[in-house]
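Q: Hi! First time doing this. I have a protein sequence and I read that you can turn it into a structure. Is that right? Here it is:
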Amino acid sequence: MQKKQTILVVASLLLVVVLSVTLAYFTAQIIGKGKDVSVSSADLKIIFTDTDGNIEGNDITPGWSNSKTFTVKNESNETYKYNIVIKDLVNTFVTTGYLQYKITSVDGGYNMSEFKDVPKSSAPKDTILAKNVTIGKGETQSYTIEFKYANDESVDQSDDMGKKLSGKLFITEGTEQPTLLSQILKDNPTRSTRSNNNNGANDFATPLTATTTGTLFTSTESITGITTSPKEVYYYAGNTTNNWVKFGGFYWRIIRTNHDGSIRLLYVGTSHDTTTGNIGTSAFNTNSYSPKYVGYKYGEDTSLDTIRNNTTDSTIKTYVDNWYKNNLTNYTKYLSTSAVYCNDRSEGTGQTYNYSSSPSLKFNFAPYYRMDYDTDGAKANPSYNCSDVRDAFSVDNTSAKLDYPVSLMTADEIAFAGGVAGQIMNTPYAWFISNSAGTQVSTEWWSLSPIYWKESYARVWHWNYGHVLLSGSSVDNVDYADAVRPAISLKSCTLYNAGDGSATNPYTILETESGC
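A: Yes, that's right. Below is the predicted 3D structure, encoded as structure tokens:
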């Protein structure tokens, strides 16, 4: 087979990489010298070396930054992919969040939306900073890579004195990149199921706190009016320790997969050991005097149909949307718009919506019975299904439309994960309330699932921090407003970048132009 010859020119004042290509594969040979990166923090000094000399900073202190430019040019007749690599990386800096880098391109190359920590390595190790960057025929991509050592006057940064960063900036051939979903399936080879009738026992009647790392549980999800048949989903339950994700500058825990293959995440916070893992506190709605106020959006309260007209945003939806606008809009391309967040307002069996004729009478919504409010979870039977399209909130659903691809975790998802109504959970906690230190990650927080209407109270399921169990709260509880923990869903095509899902090495995604 005749070989094609491809030349990629990589320059930061001139570095050339030649790739020999066949129809089936290509291999890389580096010609010339890489760009040296050397840091010695006895005086926090960093040196970049290339063929035209050094970019050097002397007596660098916290607050210092510097940058280097380079280009990648494709003079072949094909489109190719390449990785941006630090070869022989050594980084012995102790602190996190201070020594960071950012790669940007002005003409179609790889772009990072935020600074990231320089990966740590005590021995020389080739480390990929950007994977599978696409460069078209005849294209030139110009880059700036910025390094900074952040200043934090509230922290003693002297632990970094005497530490070292070194390596050379190179490119290597790109490889096929796995999706985050495929990596999760690979890292969790064990499959299990839970049932409300497992040889006569109900798996959902007792809090699940057993260690389950490496296990994915399976169930199904169907959405009336959206999915024609139940779709298999995977979820985490119990005390699993490998479902951490770092995304958008925040820590998250993986709840489950969705009917569209996307990956649902629960907000944890800005650190993995936080005890304030929420975005603040809010009432679910500022009024409780109608059953309509259990709605994430709602209409008029003349009937069960009219409250599902979804013309008015709830107080908590407004709160979540404002947080999203201020924090995650730059990451929307990675999020599923078809993933459904079910605010299930269907009536429980034998119940009748009677507010308009008898507003003092009680009636229960379906989640009342699935969580088994009356007998503390003994008959719990959670479900991912959503039986009315008007309760199936998503960006794509015009009957229950979200403005942004974000909402809340449901009570059913909490029950699948190991929580039980009225049953105290002891340590070790199930993953959804546990931080990396094994303590509760947040104070009491809202779910998306209604419970009942009674007299002048509309109530919604929430997680009770003090009693460590699922219980109910009036939607207008302003004096003791619950915390808010958003839920989002990464698209099924989102690419895996690094990490093993642990708190200290969480999954990260590969940032791309398309979000896939």
